[in-house]
Amino acid sequence: MLVPMAELLAAAQREGYAAGAFNTYNLEITRAIVRAAEAQQAPLIVQVGSSALRYAGREALTALVLAEAQRSPVPVAVHLDHSAKLDEIRWCVEQGFTSVMIDGSALPLAENIALTREAVAIARPHGVTVEAELGSIVGEEDRAAEREAVGLTSPAQAEQFVQATAVDALAVAVGNVHGFYKGEPKLDTARLDEIHRRVPVPLVLHGASGLSDAAIQRSIQGGVRKFNVNTELRVALFTALADTLPRIHAHYDVPGLFTPAIAAMQAVVEEKLQLFGSAGKA
Ligand SMILES: [Zn+2]
After folding, report:
1. Is the pLDDT of residue 170 over 60?
2. Radius of gyration for the alpha carbons in the chain, expressed in angstroms and rounded
3. Averaged pLDDT of the chain
4. Residue 280 located in a structural domain
5. What is the number of structural domains in the chain?
6. Which of 3, 207, 260, 279 could cross-link with 40 by S-S, CB 3.0 to 4.6 Å?
7. What integer pLDDT is reported at residue 147 of this predicted model?
């Protein structure tokens, strides 16, 4: 069933676990994610970014994801990932997304606050959740250019930002990066704890692909209620396709090509849902 993301995060906050948010680009990835949540009886966030909407056609991808969410017996929030455009946010709100992320993190604080307030004004009358970002999560987001490191999230600024914008969830930069980590990830847990102490809303950690189980558990203790996972799903997809293609090439069997890839991605999502503590919480 389709639910507001705030509802899903509030349940996670009450019970001390985190929800998994997984990026989709197409039918196969969407099916893998939703099947995993059903198999694990877990609440779920399916998210799409601007580049996925452009790639798949925004009407088609939106219809697909919303239909899967509505059909599913587990609670599913449909979320727009990293948008800096208010017209895109408005469009997604009108289509029935239950959550949007306004990303003004590249802007100076006052401008980020102003942009985020506008997004809240668009989304809140429709009961749509708003996630914002403060501090810069470096690394590749989809295929966009590497962003400037403007630094980790300041706990004092986070408190001010959440008060000024009334956002529902805050994405923080505490040493997490998008894409692949170079070496062992090192999260600034003291900073995370201080943000959690000052900020009442659920925290979001982008770049959860590649974080150790211990780092995930520690982040949940530090108030993280949503982990974004993208890279690890794509690795599973590409690995399975490369493995399957030489074996079935002569048959041109489309389900035969994609079915093992769906299963491989589903296995990754199921493992994450267990790790985040959301398995069995639907
Ligand atoms: Zn992100």
Report:
1. yes
2. 18
3. 94
4. no
5. 1
6. 279
7. 40
Q: Which two tokens stand for residue 98?
A: 């239950």
Residue 81 annotated among the catalytic residues of the structure: yes
Task: Residue 172: give its domain's CATH number.
Answer: 3.20.20.70
Check residue 277 and give its pLDDT. 98
Q: Is residue 281 part of a domain?
A: no
Prediction pTM value: 0.94
Residue 72: predicted pLDDT: 98
Strand ranges (DSSP E) for the chain?
A: 19-23, 44-49, 76-83, 99-102, 129-134, 169-172, 203-205, 224-229
Note whether 116 and 201 are within 8 A (CB). Answer: no
Q: How far is the CA of 254 from the centre of ligand 1 (A)?
A: 31
For residue 178, the CA-to-ligand 1 centroid distance in Å is 6
pLDDT at residue 112 tops 50: yes
Domain that holds residue 62: 5-275
Cα–Cα dist 140/209, whole Å:
13
